[in-house]
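Risk register update: the risk of archive-format incompatibility is retired. Evidence:
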Amino acid sequence: MKDFVIIGAAQAGLSMAYFLKQKQKDFLIIDREEVIGASWLNRWDSLKLFTPTEFNHLIGMPFPAPKGHYPDKYEVASYFKDYVETFQFPIQLNTLAEHIEKQGDHFIIKTSQQDILSKHVIIATGPFHIPYTPQFHNKISESICQVHSNYYKTPDQLQEGPTLVVGGGDSGFQILDEISKNTSETTYFSGSTDIRTLPQEILGKTLWWWFTITGFLSFSKNSWLGKKISQSKQPIIGTDVKSIIKRDNVNVVGHTLDAETECIITATKKLTDVKNIVWATGYKPNFEWIKDLELAKDGYPKHHRGISTTEGLYFIGLPWLHTRGSATLGGIKKDAAYLANRIL
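Archived output:
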């Protein structure tokens, strides 16, 4: 029986592993993927972090890039691999956690490989679980290529002809930018354009430098300011939205409302020439595989700074686990340090 099992080998799980290693605990990291960093490698090819190098350091090992550099997904995955090798974490890949159940003073973790017993379990599977698409996507003709942003890699995946990008978050606008730059075909955009945008640098300093100086990343989700920030629509960072939607081949059509075979119904028009749809419509949480877990209204576990209402069960890497900084590569170490101190 292990003292701890960490489920998930991205930044959250690795940060917790660092503290358990320092305390010489008997633990194991399991991850469903075949390689370290797969959660980043599986995303679109042109993805880059919004945060520069100096805000991407995990505990105990700096990110290997010059100050001010914005790493791509390959650099992040390589950093994770080096991190695991440097600290020699015990890790088992190709192992999907399928069910967790507490029995007495320990947990039984049923996986795709074997059952694992542990006194404590740390869930570090991140916030992106089930790619969400509206139900009417099933009514769309098979002749139209549909792909969720979770599986989108490059414009080469798409058929010739107009593309509809649905979703006005960071992912949606980055993908809209890439597709519309690489084709002369019409690229429809479905989503709100009434959004705030923030540049990556202000007055010669990075946006994240300003966030740190002003304390923006440190407001607790339970504070008045934290509640206002977490409940407001998040700004688009580092993408020039106005110039993208002004391109000759970009057509803004409002929200997508319904569909019928080859006709996509939007707020402003019916589209009959669409050959591809990229759904940048986010994710839904999935914790059904953890028996008797108490969930909040948003579908995420009830917890206090990662400490679950189930004794011995912990969470790290959830959105707004404690602050806005909880969602950043460099901010995870504060949550991990707090949780490790409480656990150990």
